[in-house]
Design a protein that fits this description.
It contains 30 helices and 30 strands. The protein is an alpha/beta fold.
Length: 805
C-alpha cells in the first residue's frame, strides 16, 4: 500500500542559519559567470581558435546569462588582441561606379582624410594663383607666339598662291575661306551671284585648281593648332606641378609605404592635371544665365564648391583609433543594411544620385578583425540578412550591395564598391531549438558555426553554489543601489531558485527572474522604509507576482466552486477520476484539475480518444492513449482477444489537450470501468505510464498539486484529500508554504506511485493482485475483476460474431 510522503519531502527548505552572512552588504561583488562551466569552456575555445568556420552559437534560455557571459569574455579577450585595420573608400577615377577600398593601419584613416582635404584646399588656392601670374602669361605667350608666326607664314604662302589665281584668303569662324577678287576687290556672295554664268564658271574652275594647295595649308594649320594645345597642356602641367608638386611630394613621402594610398595619390595627381579647368574656375564663368536662374543660390554654391571636388574626398568606413584591442560589436538590429552596409541615395533636382561618399558601413565592417555578436532570433526577422551574413563568412569578403540586387530583383545601375577582405568571429545568441532547426535545415550552418556553447538552466544546489547565489545578490544590490537582503531573505531566494528549477536538488540559473524578484521585494521594503529586505518582502513579492497573473486561474476556481466545472473531491465513482493538467499563460503557469471519465463496452475498437476524434488532442496525448492499449494487451490479452471498446474524455475541456502526463489517470479510469470498482474522488492523479505499467515522471508537478489543493481548500479541506504523483517526481517538489502547512496539519497528502498496480490498489482500496503461474489472478483482486470482465467481453464478441479489426 502506498504511504503518504513525509512533509519534509514537500519542499526543500533552506535554513537561514546556513547562510554565511547576516546581510549581503558584507559580501563582495562577483564578476564570475555562475553555474555555466561547460558553456564557459566552449566559449573560451571558440573565441581563441582562429581556423575558418569556428564561429559560435551560444544556446540557452533567456535570462541564463548568455549575453553577460559573452560580453565578459569578449571584453577580456579583445584587450589582448591587436587593433584592427582602418578601411576607407575612395573614388575610382577610371570607373566611378566601382569605388576602391584601401586598408590602412589602425587610426590612420582620419589623418589621411584630413591630409587629403588640406591638399585639395591648398591646391584650389595655389593653382589659380599660379595661372594668374605674369610668369605663366609670358611663357604661354612665348610658346604660342612661335606657333602664331608659323601659322601666319603658312597663311601668307597660301594667300600668295591664291592671289595669283585671283583669290584672297580670309580667316573666318569655320576656318580659312577662299574669296574671289575682281579689280582688287573681294566679292560678296551677292556680287558673285550677279556675275555672268561664264564668269562664275571660270572662277569655280580656278578655285578647284587651288583646293590642292589650300588643303595642304589647312592640314599644316590644324597640325599647328594641335601642337599648340599640346604645348599649352604641357605648360599647364608644368605650372600645376610647380604649384602643387611639393604638396604631392609630402603626401607621397608620408604614405609611400602604403601601396594603396600611393597609387591613389598618383591617380589624384593625374585627374587634377586632366581637369585643371575645375580648379581655375572656368566652369563658373561658362555657366549660362538661364541655368543660374534655375538653380537657387545655395545649391549653386554647393554645386560649385562641393560636387566639383567631392571626388577627391576620403570616405572613412572603419576607424579603429579608439582604445587598444580588437573591436567588439553587439548588433541589436541585424537588418541586411545594418549588417553589411549600404550605399545611400539622395535626390538632387528630381534625380536620384549616389557616389562613393555615401557608402555607409555595417556592423560586419566595424567588427572586421574582431568579434560580432548577434541575437539570432532578431537576425531572422529581417529579409536577406541571414543569407548575406553567410555569404560574407563563406567568401571571407564583405560586399556592399542592395539586398534586392543580391536576390536578382533589381536591375538598375548602382554602386558596386570593391569588396573588403573579412576576418571576423561571429557569435550568435539564441535558444537550443533554433540551433536545431538551423542544423537540420541549412547545410551551410554546420560548416560556418562549428562551436556550440550550451547555457544550462539549472545548477546543483550545494553550499558552493548557494554562496555564489548570495554573491550574485550582493552584486545586484550594489550595482543597482537596492536595499541589501538579510539571511532570511537570502534563504528564501535560494528556495525560489529551486522552485524555478522544478527540482529541490537544483538551483535555477535564470538570474533575470531572480533579479526581478529581488527588485520587486526592494520596492516593498522601500515602501516600509525597512533597513533590509527580509523573508516577508520576498514572500510578498512572490505572492503579488502571482496575483497579477492569476486572474484566469481564479475564474476557473470560481467556476469549480459554483459547480459550473464539475469536480468531486469526496466519495467514490466508477470510471471517473480527477486528472491534473497545467495551463500556461505567458510567464505564468497554474494547475487545473479536470474530470476524466471512461466508458467501456463490448467491441473491437480498442481505446478511442474522444479528444483526438474531436481534433482537440495533440500528438503526445494520442501517443499516451495508444500506450494504454499496449498495456492492456500485454497484461490481459495473452489468452484471448481484446474485445473492448473504451472511450476516454477530459470532461468540460474545450481548449485542446496535449502531453502524456494523464495517461496513468486515464488507465485508472478504464480499469475502474472494467472492474466495476469505484475510485476515490478525493485523490487527484497525474503521471504517464509505459506498456509495462510503470508510472513515469511528468512536468509541472508543483503547479498541478497546488491547483488541486486550491480546489480542495475552496470546497473545504476534510483531511481525506490529496494527490498521487509518480515516485520519480518527489525530487521535483517545491510546493508553496500554505500547502506544506496544510500537510503538516494532516489536511492534505501526497502519495508517490511507482506502478499502475500500486496506484489502482490505493485508489480502490482493493488489492491489485499478481499474476499466478497459470496466468490467472487471485480472486477478488482488481486484476482478477478486470481479466474476468475482458474474458466475458471476448466471449460476447465471439457470440455476436463481432469481426476482429
Amino acid at each position: 500500500m502506498i504511504k503518504s510522503l513525509e512533509t519534509r519531502d514537500y519542499r526543500a527548505v533552506y535554513d537561514p542559519g546556513l547562510v554565511e552572512c547576516s546581510t549581503t552588504e558584507t559580501l563582495n561583488i562577483t564578476e564570475e559567470i555562475i553555474g555555466q562551466d561547460r558553456a564557459q569552456k566552449a566559449l573560451r575555445f571558440g573565441l581563441e581558435i582562429q581556423e575558418k568556420g569556428f564561429n559560435i552559437y551560444v544556446a540557452g534560455m533567456p535570462g541564463t546569462g548568455r549575453r553577460t557571459a559573452v560580453k565578459k569574455f569578449l571584453d577580456e579577450l579583445a584587450k589582448t588582441k591587436s587593433k584592427a585595420d582602418d578601411w576607407i573608400y575612395v573614388n575610382n577615377f577610371v570607373n566611378p561606379y566601382e569605388p576602391l577600398a584601401i586598408r590602412l593601419p589602425p587610426g590612420m584613416s582620419s589623418q589621411v582624410k584630413t591630409d587629403m582635404a588640406s591638399f585639395i584646399g591648398e591646391a584650389r588656392r595655389a593653382l589659380p594663383r599660379a595661372f594668374e601670374s605674369d610668369d605663366y602669361a609670358n611663357k604661354r605667350q612665348e610658346a604660342l607666339g612661335k606657333l602664331d608666326t608659323e601659322r601666319e607664314t603658312i597663311v601668307g604662302e597660301v594667300n600668295e598662291s591664291a592671289a595669283k589665281q585671283g583669290f584672297t584668303i580670309q580667316i573666318g569662324p569655320t576656318g580659312l575661306m577662299i574669296i574671289p577678287v575682281i579689280d582688287g576687290k573681294p566679292l560678296t556672295q551677292e556680287e558673285f551671284e550677279a556675275l555672268p554664268k561664264e564668269t562664275q564658271g571660270e572662277i569655280l574652275r580656278k578655285r578647284e585648281a587651288l583646293d590642292v594647295d589650300l588643303r595642304s595649308g589647312f592640314r599644316h594649320i590644324r597640325e599647328l593648332d594641335a601642337k599648340g594645345m599640346e604645348v599649352v597642356n604641357a605648360l599647364n602641367n608644368e605650372i600645376a606641378l610647380y604649384a602643387i608638386g611639393h604638396l604631392l611630394t609630402g603626401l607621397k613621402e608620408k604614405y609611400g609605404k602604403i601601396p594603396g594610398i600611393l597609387t591613389y595619390i598618383e591617380n589624384v595627381q593625374k585627374d587634377i592635371l586632366d581637369n585643371l579647368v575645375t580648379f581655375l574656375g572656368s566652369a563658373q564663368q561658362q555657366q549660362q544665365p538661364q541655368q543660374q536662374e534655375q538653380v537657387p543660390p545655395p545649391f549653386q554654391q554647393w554645386l560649385a564648391k562641393d560636387l566639383a571636388f567631392r571626388k577627391y574626398e576620403i570616405n572613412v568606413v572603419v576607424d579603429n583609433a579608439g582604445p587598444d584591442g580588437a573591436p567588439v560589436v553587439f548588433e541589436e538590429t541585424p537588418s541586411y543594411q545594418n549588417l553589411l552596409g549600404k550605399a545611400e541615395k539622395e535626390v538632387q533636382f528630381g534625380v536620384v544620385t549616389t557616389d562613393f561618399m555615401m557608402i555607409r558601413p555595417g556592423s560586419v565592417h566595424k567588427a572586421n578583425g574582431g568579434y560580432l555578436v548577434i541575437p539570432v532570433l532578431d537576425l531572422f526577422r529581417y529579409p536577406f540578412a541571414w543569407d548575406g551574413l553567410k555569404s560574407a563568412l563563406k567568401t571571407e569578403k564583405v560586399k556592399i550591395e542592395e539586398p534586392g540586387e543580391q536576390a536578382g530583383f533589381i536591375a538598375t545601375r548602382g554602386l558596386k564598391p570593391q569588396p573588403i577582405p573579412l576576418n571576423v568571429k561571429v557569435i550568435l545568441i539564441g535558444t537550443p531549438d533554433i540551433n536545431q532547426i538551423l542544423n537540420q535545415g541549412d547545410p551551410d550552418y554546420p560548416e560556418l558555426f562549428k562551436v556550440r556553447a550550451d547555457f544550462d538552466t539549472v545548477m546543483d544546489r550545494n553550499e558552493s553554489n548557494v554562496r555564489s547565489y548570495a554573491a550574485y545578490i550582493c552584486t545586484l544590490c550594489k550595482r543597482f543601489n537596492l536595499i541589501h537582503l538579510d539571511s532570511t531573505a537570502i534563504a528564501k531566494v535560494v528556495e525560489y531558485g529551486s522552485r524555478l528549477a522544478d527540482d529541490k536538488m537544483k538551483l535555477s540559473t535564470r538570474f533575470s527572474s531572480v533579479a526581478d524578484l529581488i527588485r520587486e521585494a526592494n520596492f516593498y521594503a522601500m515602501q516600509e522604509k525597512a533597513k533590509n529586505i527580509t523573508v516577508r518582502h520576498i514572500e510578498k513579492a512572490v505572492g503579488e507576482k502571482i496575483y497579477r497573473s492569476n486572474l484566469i486561474q481564479q475564474k476557473i476556481q470560481e467556476f469549480i466552486e459554483r459547480g459550473v466545472y464539475l469536480i468531486d473531491i469526496e466519495g467514490s465513482q466508477v470510471g471517473q477520476i480527477n486528472g491534473l493538467s497545467v495551463m500556461e499563460l505567458g510567464d505564468f503557469a497554474f494547475g487545473r484539475p479536470s474530470r476524466v471519465t471512461a466508458s467501456v463496452a463490448v467491441g473491437r475498437d480498442g481505446i478511442i480518444d474522444i479528444e483526438r476524434q474531436a481534433q482537440l488532442g495533440g500528438p503526445t496525448h494520442t501517443k499516451g492513449v495508444l500506450i494504454l492499449g499496449g498495456y492492456l494487451a500485454n497484461k490481459y490479452a495473452q489468452d484471448k482477444p481484446l474485445s473492448m471498446t473504451a472511450k476516454l474524455v477530459f470532461e468540460q475541456s474545450y481548449g485542446g489537450v496535449d502531453g502524456d502526463s494523464a495517461s496513468s489517470t486515464e488507465l485508472y479510469a478504464i480499469l475502474s470501468s472494467l472492474s466495476g470498482l469505484p475510485l476515490k474522488q478525493s485523490i487527484a492523479v497525474t503521471g504517464s505510464v509505459n506498456q509495462r505499467g510503470e508510472v513515469q515522471a511528468i512536468g509541472g508537478v508543483n503547479e498541478k498539486l497546488e491547483g488541486f489543493f486550491e480546489v480542495c481548500k475552496a470546497k473545504g479541506l476534510t483531511g481525506q484529500q490529496g494527490a498521487m504523483i509518480p515516485a520519480s517526481n518527489v525530487q521535483n517538489l517545491m510546493l508553496k508554504e500554505e500547502l506544506l502547512a496544510a500537510a503538516k496539519e494532516g489536511k492534505f497528502a501526497i502519495y508517490p506511485a511507482r506502478t499502475i498496480d500500486e496506484g489502482i490498489e490505493f485508489l480502490t482500496g482493493v488489492p491489485a493482485g499478481e499474476r499466478q503461474p497459470d496466468g490467472s489472478y487471485q480472486e477478488g483482486t482488481v486484476n482478477y475483476l478486470v481479466n474476468r470482465r475482458l474474458q466475458e467481453m471476448a466471449e460476447m464478441a465471439r457470440e455476436f460474431q463481432i469481426p476482429l479489426r
